[in-house]
Amino acid sequence: MRSTHRSLDRRRAGVLLHLTSLPGPHGIGDLGRPASRFMKWLETSGWDLWQVLPIGPIGKGDSPYSSASSFAIEPLLVSLEGLVDEGLLAPSALRAPTSLKTRIRADYSGARRFKAPRWDTAFEAFTELRRDRSRSYLGFLERSEHWLGPWCRWAAEHRGGDEDFHAFQQFILEGQWKQLRTEARRRRISLFGDLPIFVPMESADVESNPKLFQLERNGRPRLVSGTPPDSFSRNGQLWGHPQYRWPEHRRSEYRWWIERIRRQFQLFDLVRIDHFIGLLHAWMIPGNARSARGGQWRKVPGRELLEAIHAELPDCALVAEDLGRVTPAVRKLRDDFALPGMFLLQHAFDTDGGPALPHALPEHSVAYTGTHDNDTTVSWWKGLPPSTRQRITEYGGSPTRGPHELMTRLVMSSRANLGIIPMQDLLGLDGKSRMNIPGKPSGNWRWRLGKGMLDIRVARRMNRLAAVTGRLT
User: Fold this and answer.
1) Smaller CB count within 10 Å for the chain: N or C?
2) What is the model's pLDDT at position 230?
3) pLDDT score for 17
């Protein structure tokens, strides 16, 4: 039995807000001033955790959970103001069309059209200034070669440009991320990342390491990921990621996984392992199946994997996203490695009491109102039967300011050491602000903070709540 990581062993509070949801003039949130303004606001609240979704190069449907690399950073997140500060762009390059500046939702295609030529201009300036021969750039190339080379080859083939251009992009993004993390530490804010357990077929990971995945000789997946049929989905969910060839990972002493985790802790202070139950057993579906109904549960050597990770990275603060089919074996694997699990209060009142209620949560856990996959609390509340609403108000009191404030208070007053609230719930927004609808292939991941939403009055209320519930930094 391992001991709890020090960063997970005290009462803390945080906000779930993805980088793309930040405001800004260029169609999408980025690593520059929008992120800095948010951290200043968060510091005022006294909450010290900022949880984001995966930051890798996005894939189908602009999903952060379908990344083309486990190591690279999404180029859309670049701060163009940062490129101006570096002397790689002229200030005039920041002027965006009014249609882009006034977008109230993340505009991925518009941001790509606007940022792509500016990336090209910055690369030309970088080369002309001979910064491609600088010590910092050459050092980045050397220490990142194990993932940068495969990414640049894949990106050049599938996204255009040459390999040097994609290396330049990652160098800039790495530098901007370091600035973000330095400011976060100065403000005593911990960055909380998210690691998808699977990677898509259309990725540099699969292309550069085919032997680590269950592929046919023609390169197509033999077995793919998903979830079995349940009360929410008659046919289950067919995710389509290639399943891992675990004997190969064992033979390599889990080197790819170790480097993947190491990379996360170069970027974040805490990391959530998405779909943690997949480290004990995975629903494996034939690669040619049209639904998830024909899959089978098969065991996965997650204990060996976690042993290997902790042997080489003993100081990593991991959180287990253990929602779903949680068996006693899953709980034991989680607890043996001292990983806090997750509890969603939107699910806690489905029955009359139980271990998921706020007063009964284990201290070594993370409580949420909901996550990016859930409806906002305001919208969820509207759809509840009267009996469930009554049960919640009998437990937590009347929602005088709205159900979002009641549920936030229940998270914050719970026994869980970590309490995380989606930004939409802090602001009391309705279902139009929902981040993602699972199973819907398009139209997700587009919610953004609007003008004036980072209200200092909200931050002050958060500060008072953190103080009274023992979570103030």
Assistant:
1) N
2) 80
3) 98
The region that residue 324 occupies, defined by phi over 0 for left and psi between -120 and 50 for alpha, beta otherwise, is left
Q: How large is the C-alpha radius of gyration of the chain? A: 22
| pLDDT value of residue 154 | 98
CA distance 54 to 323: 18
d(CA 373, CA 443): 13
Report the sign of the C-alpha dihedral through residues 202, 206, 208, 214, in that order.
Answer: negative
Q: Are residues 330 and 342 in contact, defined by beta-carbon separation less than 8 angstroms?
A: no
How far apart are alpha carbons 20 and 60 in whole angstroms?
16
d(C-alpha 116, C-alpha 101), whole Å? 17
pLDDT digits (tens, 9 = 90+) for 355-410: 789 999 999 999 999 999 999 999 999 999 999 999 999 999 998 899 999 999 99
| Distance, CA of 436 to CA of 372 (rounded, Å) | 6
- Cα–Cα distance measured from residue 332 to residue 285, given in angstroms and rounded to the nearest whole number: 26
H helices present in 129-245, as ranges: 135-159, 163-186, 204-208
Give the C-alpha separation, 247 to 301, whole Å: 9
Contact (Cβ atoms closer than 8 angstroms) between residue 426 and residue 408: yes
**Could you report the per-residue pLDDT of 117-144, keeping only the tens digit for each?**
999 999 999 999 999 999 999 999 999 9
Measure the CA–CA gap between 82 and 179, rounded to whole angstroms: 10
DSSP symbols for 231-281: SS-TT-EEEEEEPB-HHHHHHTTTHHHHHHHHHHHHH-SEEEETTGGGGTE
Just list the catalytic residues.
274, 321, 373
Q: What is the dihedral of CA 407, 413, 416, 420, to 10 degrees?
A: 50
pLDDT at 354: 73
Say what angle helices 163-186 and 108-128 make with each other, to 10 degrees: 100
pLDDT at position 245, please?
A: 98
Q: Which pLDDT score is estimated for 1?
A: 61
| Side chain identity, residue 449 | L
Q: Is the domain defined by 6-468 classed in CATH 3.40.50.2000?
A: no
**Backbone phi, psi, residue 387, to 5°:** -65, -40
Residue 350's pLDDT is: 81
Name the residue among 463, 461, 468, 454 with its Cα closest to residue 23.
454
CA distance 466 to 420: 12
In the predicted model, residues of the chain with pLDDT beneath 50 are none
> Structure pTM?
0.96
